[in-house]
Every structure is written in C-alpha cells, then in structure tokens.
Design a protein that fits this description.
By secondary structure, the chain is an alpha/beta fold. The chain contains 8 helices and 10 strands. It has a single domain (11-244), classed as Nucleoside phosphorylase domain (Rossmann fold, 3-Layer(aba) Sandwich), CATH 3.40.50. A 5-stranded mixed beta barrel has the order 5-9-8-6-10. A hairpin with a 2-residue loop joins strand 2 and strand 3 (46-53). The model has no long low-confidence stretch (mean pLDDT 96).
Length: 245
C-alpha cells in the first residue's frame, strides 16, 4: 500500500479524479456537492475529503498557495492513484471583458513562476488537457454560467502583481504585464502552470476553472470595480465536468 509523505493518506481511497482548491476552507464545501462526502486527512496545507458522483470516487484536496505545494499535491496524488486533476481556484481578471464573478477556464498558462522550470524547459507550454477543458466548457454551458476560455498568467508573487512599482524589478514586471495584456491574457492566478506541467510530465491530465474575484484592469480604466468572493459557480462547473468526463 502506497503511503504519501505530505498529503497524509494512502491509495486505499480508490479515486482516480481529484478536485483541487487552493484554500483548505473550501474543501468541505466542495465535497458536499458530491454524494457520501467524508473526511480523509489533514496535514499542513493539504486537507482532503472523499465523495462520489455517478459511481465515480472523487477526492477533494486543498493545495495551498502557489506552485511548489500544488506540485507536491499532484505528485503525491498521482502516487496514490489519481490520474485526473481539476483545479478550482480564484483569479484576478485581466482582459477587459472578464467581469467579477465570471468563470475563466484555462487552456494554458504563462509560466511566470519557478516550479515548472524544475520539470520542463521554459519553451515547453503549460497546457491543460483537451478532454478535461472540454468537459469544463460543456459543464459551464449546460449550467448557463458566464465563462471565458483561454490563456491565464501564473505567478509566484501576489504583491509583485499588485504592487509592482515598489519592487526593485518594477520595470521588468510592468513591461511583461503590458505584454500579457496585449496578448489577450484573461486572468492571473498562482497554481495552474505548475499543475499543468507536472501533470504532463507524469502522463496525467489536468484542467482548471477559476472564479474571477475582481478585475484590476477594469478598475484602472474607470469601469466597474465589483468584487465577488463566491466560488459556487466554479465548484458547480468542476463537479459537472467530472460527470461529463
């Protein structure tokens, strides 16, 4: 029986699919969207529950903030039998058309972080699995949820994004941000690039659905400055995607 070091449980669960929020506080909420939800383990940032949907066992496990812990989560979940990962997270909108509360389904992520560089040369794209992405899009459409599909920006420093002018590398940060905007990047978050790259390195599949908390570019342009912290639509989309898969 395989035992994991960080996530705190073995391969007795029988699940091949995992839903991955960052925040441990969201795990139970997500698990209760499944049938027969029950607690599995808690260690460090990794809180885990197990449930079922349509006869399929599904793990729900938090990854904490950032690429390093997301990579550990993927590695150890893979070691105990998981082969499909779906991140359920939050993001800040970048493209003007992305409003607070909208879903962003990531096809690929800009690797502006460090974890994925331990797995692949920087030229290798951090791309989501097509079938998982298609299931997320299908679920969003069937539920009538406002959503966007495309590239997201994945970073290591939250404050490097939100307060770049006070950083010693301000000019580099600001120039790259402008480039990402001109390239049509939808939103910014902190885990997808590591998850996609690790999954591809392992031969697993991964997807990502994000709930937009706000859009700093809309605020900068003098447009609406709403904030939405409810992740219910992203949860319903991810659970729906498992059913489609």
């Amino acid at each position: 029986m395989v035992e994991s070091y960080h996530i705190g449980f073995n391969d007795a669960h029988g699940a091949t699919v995992a839903l991955l929020p960052g925040d441990p506080a969201r795990v139970e909420t997500i698990a209760r969207e499944l049938d027969n939800p029950r607690f599995v383990a808690q260690n460090r940032e990794f809180t885990t529950w197990l449930g079922e949907t349509h006869g399929t066992s599904v793990l729900v496990m938090s990854t904490g903030i950032g690429g390093p812990s997301a990579a550990i989560a993927a590695e150890e979940l893979y070691a105990v039998g998981v082969r499909t990962f779906i991140r359920i997270g939050t993001c800040g909108g970048m493209a003007e058309r992305v409003h607070a509360g909208d879903l962003v389904i990531a096809q690929a992520a800009i690797r502006a972080e460090g974890t994925s560089r331990e797995y692949a040369p920087i030229e290798y794209p951090a791309a989501a699995d097509f079938d998982v992405t298609n299931a997320l899009v299908t679920a969003a459409k069937s539920l009538g949820l406002a959503h966007h599909v495309g590239v997201v920006h994945c970073k290591d420093s939250f404050y490097g994004q939100h307060e770049p002018s006070r950083m010693p590398v301000a000019r580099e940060l600001e120039a790259k941000w402008e480039a990402w905007l001109r390239l049509g990047t939808l939103a910014s978050e902190m885990e997808s690039a590591a998850l996609f790259t690790v999954a591809n390195a392992l031969g697993a599949r991964a997807g990502c659905v994000l709930s937009t908390v706000w859009n700093q570019e809309r605020r900068r342009l003098g447009l609406d400055a709403d904030e939405v912290h409810d992740t219910g639509d992203a949860i319903r989309c991810a659970v729906g995607a498992v059913r489609w898969l």
